[in-house]
Amino acid sequence: MAATLSDYLAKSASYKNASSDSQEKFRIIGSQFSTITGFKAATIRTLYSRRTVEGERIIKPFSTKEAAIFRELKKEIDPTISIEDNFIRLLTTEFIKKQVETVRDISIDSLNTNPILGRALKFDTPKELLRYYVYSSATRGIVTSMGTLIEQLLLYSNHDVYDGKYYKEGLVNKWDIVIERLGSVRTYIEVKSGPNDMDHTQVNSYVREIRALEEAGYKGLFGFGYGRRGEDYITTKFLQKQMEDWEEHTLIGRELWDYVSGNPGYHIHLMSVIKQTSASILKSKSIVKLIELKIKELTEQFEMRFPDVDAYYAQLW
C-alpha cells in the first residue's frame, strides 16, 4: 500500500463494499494510468481493449456492481488535486460518515447503562442520564476510529510508505507503517494517536523491537500523531526510563507528519484539507450538534416509555 492511483481505487472500492477480487481488479486498472486525468477519461470499452503481452485481457468483464462502482470512482476522484489529497478527502469522509452513523444508531436500549453509576453520579433526570451515556457511547467509538484514521492518513501521505503488517521483521509485534526511500535506511514506525496512549508494557515491548531492528541494520521509531517535543507526557516518561536515546527514536506531532510525508509543514496542509472535507459533509452541524439532537430525540422517547428515572433503573436489574 502507498499513495498511488492503484491503491486509491482499491481503497475507495472497499468502502463501497466491493469484494476482495473486485478491489484487486480496480487496483490493476489503476496501474494502467500514470495520471488521474487519464483514469477519468477511461471508459469500460477502452479497459476491455487492453491486453497483456500474451494477448490476454488485462481485466475480466465487469459485473453490474463493478460497473456502477467504476462510474462512481470516476465521478468522485478529483484530478485537480494530488493523489495524496484525494486520499485525505476519502479517508476523512469515511471517518466522518462512520461517526455520524454511530450517533444516529444510538438508542435507549443500546446505551449499556450502569444503574449503580447512575445513582452514584446523581443522574436523577432523563436528560442528565442520557447526556452522559450518549456522549460516552459516541466518543468511545470516535476515539477508537481516530487511531485508525491517523494511521491511514500517514500510510497514504506518500508513495514510499507501506503497511507494516506485510513485513516479517519483528520479534513479536507488528509495526504500523514502514518507509522505504531510495538511499535511506528502511524505517519501521509504531504509530499512536497521541503521546499519552502507550503504557509501560507496550513501551518496553517496542523498545526491544527497536533494538532488534537496529541489530539487523534498520531503524525503529515511535510516532505520535499530535503533541509537541518538550512537553510532559505519560508515554515519554516511560520512554525516558527505558531508553537513554529515546528522543532519537521518537517523532512527535508535526515531526511525524513531516517525516512520513517527506514534506515540511505537511500537518498544516493536512488540517486545511480535513477542514474543507468536514465542512462539505457536516455543513453547519458539528458532531456535537448531532449528539445534542440525539439527546433531545432520546429524551422525548424516554419520557414516553418511563414515568421517571427510578422506573428505568428498576428495569435494568
Give a brief description.
By secondary structure, this protein is α/β, with parallel strands linked by helices. The chain has helices at 5-15, 20-30, 36-40, 44-49, 64-76, 83-105, 115-120, 126-155, 200-215, 234-242, 254-261, 266-282, 287-305, 309-314, and strands at 161-163, 177-179, 187-192, 219-224, 250-252.
Q: What's the SSE blueprint?
A:
Blueprint: H1 5-15, H2 20-30, H3 36-40, H4 44-49, H5 64-76, H6 83-105, H7 115-120, H8 126-155, E1 161-163, E2 177-179, E3 187-192, H9 200-215, E4 219-224, H10 234-242, E5 250-252, H11 254-261, H12 266-282, H13 287-305, H14 309-314
Parallel strand pairs: 3-4, 4-5
Antiparallel strand pairs: 1-2, 2-3
Helix pairs in contact: 1-2, 1-6, 6-8, 6-12, 6-13, 8-13, 9-10
3D architecture notes:
With 317 residues, this protein is of the alpha/beta class. 57% of the residues lie in helices and 7% in strands. It has 14 helices and five strands. It has a five-stranded mixed sheet with strand order 1-2-3-4-5, with helices on both faces. α10 (234-242) links the parallel β4 (219-224) and β5. α6 (83-105) packs antiparallel against α8. The longest helix is centred in the middle third of the chain and has 30 residues, at 126-155. The chain is globular and about 75 Å long. It starts with a helix and ends with a helix. The model has no long low-confidence stretch (mean pLDDT 92).
